[in-house]
Amino acid sequence: MSSSSAAREPRFEFASSGRHLVATGVVRHVEPRSWVGTEVARAVEDVLAAPLEAPQLVVGVLPFDSARPGMLYRPAEACWRSCTFPGLPEPFVPSASTIAVTDRRPSHEGYRCLVAKAVETIRSGELDKVVLGRSATVCAAVPWDPQSVFVRLGIQNPDAFVYLIDVPGGYSGEFAQEGVFLGASPELVLSCSGSRVRTVPLAGTMVRGSDLERDERASEALLASGKDLAEHSYVVRAIAKVFRARTDDPRIPSRPRLVPTPAVWHLGTEITGTLRGGASPFELLYELHPTPAVCGWPPERACDFIVDHEGFDRGLFAGLIGWIDADRNCEWALALRGGVLRGDQATMFAGAGVIATSEPEAELRETAAKMRTFLAALGGQEGRHDP
């Protein structure tokens, strides 16, 4: 067991839009008969309705493969705080000089070959889009403190969904050791307030410029990029189909907008609707996940390609993390721009959407830029550490 998770009760944190949820302990796990939307929704509501002396809240994380078991539970204690990340000093982390990249899966050349293989498959007509990920592991001279990394993620990414959850062995795929899963996701998969639901899928990415002029050119290039607009359209079409079938008054903009993060620009589209009847947000959540933003199109073929060729088990990476209360208010983000901490070792993940016009070197650069979100919170430096 890593020292970072052994010294405390299971902990869950989720910060967004000026609010910070902190939940500790576990009083009851959600254990559906099967991990499909209707069964998970029923099991979540049963746990929320149980007469327990605990907050009426379920928190947790779901894997990329929605058919696999997730980790959802009712915490023993929970409280909401105001987010104050921007006013905090950055906590100590290991010196950049003591941090080293020790493993990449696949290697840089392996990832280029993987993208080339995907482009060939897409041009043959078997796929339209596939999102290909890779992982990188770094080590430091001393263990990372998860709480310090979490705070740094919040300071450095003030508009993100900043998350942390203690994960026991068996829940994180290939990285199935006890550890702390945390990150700063830019992407909202589903929020629900009353019966009003909202999603903001992101697809299409451009690395930000090093100065104001270059950054403006990068954002303009993204809005005009046929490749990125096409990649984004697959995601919006898939989600719009679900919203039209499952919600009233769906609102789907005709064009995406720019969504900035410290490292990259994204194309994003805000889609809203009203849940029909007594439907649970979890049913809608499971119909959406995994979206083409992390999988591809058509989804079944894209997932098969990922399993056959990516070379590692994503586990929780590109899964869902969030919370839901007894009134069905909820917030679930994609588990992106993060990694698993285990003492002095950290494993991070990033992916890029591949279509027929994708270039292997450009997709490699995109994944490296995305990994820098987590790497910066660890104390790594661009130029010195190449994930």
TrEMBL record:
Gene Ontology MF term list: isochorismate synthase activity
Domain Chorismate-utilising enzyme C-terminal, chain residue ranges per copy: 108-370
Regions that span the bilayer: none
One Pfam family from the record: Chorismate_bind
Superkingdom per UniProt: Bacteria
NCBIfam families (UniProt xref): isochor_syn
Family, as annotated: Belongs to the isochorismate synthase family.
PANTHER family per the UniProt record, alphabetical: ISOCHORISMATE SYNTHASE ENTC (PTHR42839:SF2)
Protein name: isochorismate synthase
Native organism: Propionibacterium australiense
